[in-house]
Write a structure and sequence with these properties.
It catalyses: 2 GTP = 3',3'-c-di-GMP + 2 diphosphate. It holds the Pfam family GAF. Keywords: Plasmid. With about 325 residues, the chain is an alpha+beta fold. About 40% of the residues lie in helices and about 20% in strands. The chain has 10 helices and 11 strands. The strands form 2 sheets. It has a 6-stranded antiparallel sheet with strand order 3-2-1-6-5-4. It has a 5-stranded mixed sheet with strand order 8-9-7-10-11, sandwiched between helices. Strand 5 and strand 6 form a beta hairpin. Helix 2 runs antiparallel to helix 5 and helix 7 packs across helix 8.
Length: about 325
């Protein structure tokens, strides 16, 4: 079932894949290179449609770039359930005044197939385009639609590899990747390291299956409190991390303490109505600081929280 008129849900589907602003990946580069060769066009690309921009994950025949959503051919493609073919953009009222048609790019023909998530949201498109007018057949559309499915399969595999199977949070590697991308942008951000206090006793008393339910419950609580720009990952065992972009230490402390209090006050039927508590270490990123140095300061703060009685939040020195 397709969902073409729910933009917030479409954007949420796009963000689930954690692919915007990521580095080039050979799997996607090989797809567009093959598509360009099959269709014998000058260009091919995999484009993702964000709030107000089109971002290229991979391209053949040109450098990867992003552009305004209002200028993107693929922004039209995601509005339908089938491929979009444009024979000559100079006589198509939708595109005749497009800067990629009237400007130096001189785009004339285009064929794009929507990238549809399993739950029916078009997150972008795979496309071929050229500087010469061209007719595309129904068979051409079917071939490109098949490649769109290949792209989505790769995105699904990528998602599985980056997602913790128990809690749905990012894996350690995926979380660290998110930190690195944020550091490249030199944004203000604060890191939280979260540890479940005395979690070993939960496993010892109630068993590991119950312990897993407790971890899932905590993860759901954290995820419900996050903004779409935040990141949440499981670093291992009962240790989690939250990355809060554009948030200073005081704002992060307020967030962490609300989370800590909410978790401590909740009775968990999984452990006979008992509750769990959290120790949280907080560290804002300092200019010029490495990722490892940043994590080490947050870890020191977490250690201080546990040493000083647990069930508390500590900001790094």
């Amino acid at each position: 079932m397709f969902h073409l008129n729910d933009e917030p849900a479409r954007l949420a589907a796009l963000r689930r894949y954690e692919v915007l602003d990521t580095k080039p990946e050979v799997e996607f580069a090989e797809i567009v290179t093959l598509v360009k060769s099959i269709f014998k066009t000058k260009y091919a690309a995999i484009n993702l449609i964000d709030v107000d921009r089109q971002w290229m994950k991979a391209a053949a025949g040109l450098e990867v770039f992003e552009c305004a959503r209002e200028d993107a051919f693929c922004a039209h493609t995601i509005r339908a359930t089938r491929p979009l073919a444009v024979e000559d953009a100079t006589v198509d009222h939708r595109f005749m005044n497009n800067p990629f048609v009237t400007g130096d790019a001189s785009i004339r023909s285009y064929l794009g197939a929507p990238l549809t998530s399993p739950d029916g949201y078009n997150i972008g498109a795979i496309c071929v385009f050229d500087t010469e007018p061209r007719q595309y057949s129904v068979a051409d559309e079917a071939v490109l639609a098949s490649f769109a499915k290949v792209v989505m399969s790769q995105l699904e595999l990528r998602l599985i590899a980056r997602q913790d199977s128990l809690t749905g949070s990012l894996t350690r590697r995926a979380f660290v990747d998110r930190m690195d991308r944020l550091l490249e942008k030199q944004q203000t951000a604060t890191l939280l390291l979260i540890d479940l206090d005395r979690f070993k006793s939960v496993n010892d008393t109630f068993g590991h299956p119950i312990g897993d339910l407790v971890l899932k419950s905590l993860a759901a609580t954290v995820q419900a409190s996050l903004r779409r720009t935040d990141a949440f990952g499981r670093l291992g065992g009962e240790e989690f991390a939250v990355l809060l972009p554009t948030t200073d230490e005081q704002g992060a402390l307020a967030f962490a303490d609300r989370l800590r209090a909410e978790v401590a006050a909740r009775a968990l039927p999984e452990i006979a109505g008992g509750s769990i508590t959290l120790s949280i270490g907080i560290a804002g990123h300092r200019e010029g600081e490495s990722r490892d140095g940043w994590m080490a300061r947050a870890d020191d703060a977490l250690y201080a929280a546990k040493k000083n009685g647990r069930n508390r939040c500590v900001v790094a020195a």
